């Protein structure tokens, strides 16, 4: 994650953190893994607020059950990362 941040690639840093959360989940440390992924989800939502003006508090209300999407435009990378978080949290709850 640090290398991605040093390079200025915030989106890759988000993905690295999701991977870290998955590693904890696969190791049986579900709570820690879910906490990391939820923090990524929160950070991505805040970034979308800065970038697009999306109200991050409202956008997180249904995040546990629904994938984020936009019917009028192609998915941007931050939305894809949010969907990755949602999928990881679903996996952790199986």
Can you walk me through this structure?
With 94 residues, the chain is mainly α. It has five helices and no strands. It has helices at residues 2-6, 10-26, 30-52, 56-59, 77-92. It is globular and about 35 Å long. The mean pLDDT is 84.
On the 0 to 100 scale, the average pLDDT is 84
Radius of gyration: 13 Å
**Major sheet: size, sense and barrel closure?**
none
- Helical/strand content category: mainly alpha
Principal-axes shape call: globular
Low-confidence segments, given as residue ranges, are: none
Considering DSSP H and I runs of 4 or more, what fraction of the residues is helical? 55-70%
How many extended strands?
0
H-E string: HHHHH
How far the N terminus sits from the C terminus, by CA atoms, comes to 27 Å
Estimate what percentage of residues fall within beta strands: under 5%
- List the total number of helices: 5
What are the salient characteristics of this protein?
single chain; 94 residues; mainly alpha
Structure summary:
The protein is built from five helices and no strands.
Write the layout of secondary structure elements.
Blueprint: H1 2-6, H2 10-26, H3 30-52, H4 56-59, H5 77-92
């Amino acid at each position: 994650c640090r290398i991605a941040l040093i390079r200025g690639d915030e989106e890759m840093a988000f993905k690295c953190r999701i991977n870290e959360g998955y590693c904890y989940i696969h190791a049986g440390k579900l709570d820690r893994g879910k906490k990391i992924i939820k923090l990524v989800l929160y950070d991505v939502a805040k970034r979308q607020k800065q970038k697009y003006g999306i109200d991050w508090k409202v956008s997180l209300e249904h995040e546990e059950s629904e994938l984020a999407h936009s019917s009028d435009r192609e998915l941007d990378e931050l939305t894809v990362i949010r969907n990755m978080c949602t999928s990881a949290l679903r996996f952790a709850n199986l």
